[in-house]
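Example 3.2
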Amino acid sequence: MESSECQGCRERDARIAQLEARVLALEGQIRDLIDKTKPPPPPKRTTEQPPAPAKKATGRKPGAQAGHPPHLKKLLPPERVTELVAYIPKRCQACAASLPEKAGLSDPEPTRFQVIDLPKLTARVTEHQGHARSCPCCGEVTREPIPARVREHAFGPKLTATLSYLAGMHGVGKRGIEEIAESVFDAPIALGSVSNLEREMSAALAPAYQEAKKHLAEAEIKNVDETGWIEKKNKRTLWAGVAKLVAVFMIQSRRDLAALMRFVGETLKGILGSDRAKVYNNWPGLRQLCWAHIKRNWEKWVERGGDSDGVRLGREWLELHRIVFELWHRYREGKCEHEEFDQRIAALAVVASDILYRGQQVPNKKFAGFCKRLAERQTSLWTFAFVEGVEPTNNAAERILRRAVLWRRRSFGCSSADGCRFVERVLTAVQTLKLQERAVLDFLQNTIEAHRNGLPYPKLIPVG
């Protein structure tokens, strides 16, 4: 066809060509949708098992790869050695001369190999007897009573602390505690006694719990996350926060701003690291959005496949994510100067802003809304770049929350409010001590002893 000399005709022809191309593209998308909705063909009836798909060879040998640091068994220090067996040579292997019993100054250090085992785990039972005596003069029988402070507790502080540790650190249920006490420690205990010991430990940990909550409220940088919980078949929310090697847990009925304020303090002080949940949008200070959560959001769009705007922009964001974290790790390892880090982060922030701007222009309203909401909070993506001590992810809170999630899956929550108090307090103590690399069992034992004897409670947060 000859091109028309008329300007309007040329514009019309170009517009028609564009529309025809768009119609062809839409027809292709419709065909793809029709193909996807077609039911799969019925499987061929055969008695033979189909062969598994061949796995591509990587060329690597099984086991640890070259350059991987070995995880060798660590020898315990001499003070932890219970028994020492010495193997001393009697004669020289070269000339058969007798060798001295004691080592000389020129003799090398002995080789060492340690075998670790357990003694017989039998609980120590102390029986208290109140004896009676008959008076030789009047025949009156006088009995010496067992002291009331002794009769208050049928289980000692070490056993109480150990059973609480198994529940708080490893999420063992009450029937599991009952079985472990009898099978491992040879200490039969009733199911009701397990609940009583948990209630007592919960009361003993109350001062440490309040100490940790106050620390979280006053911390300048804190990470918070939350998950579901169950109390007597009612939905609850388990909050988890971490700040400066202190972890705090709290079970509440709601997941709103009022619940957040009860957890981290009424003033909402400090910099908050979190995911994109709406409850955190009213935080008055600086925030750090979790890049790991956002990465998962983009991955969902990419996994849809095809040639949509969400897929293309999602791949751009994932590449941006890779570059950001490579730069962040280099900076933390001292391989990147602060000035270079600031300049490159500023450039990456412009790239992120451009991706979010283009995402808001796409026809898919759901995807455009996602980009709009993220764009409104995009300044909270980069707090880690200019505030020392802030991490780009919320992994600190997620790691301490994981143990609680495993506990919930095994026990299906709690059957009472007292049970919820035990969960939040023992998790707070155990996870804080774990972060501080302190002995959990010793702290729990000292706490229950202080509670029973009216002594000062041990500090969960070291002074200084």
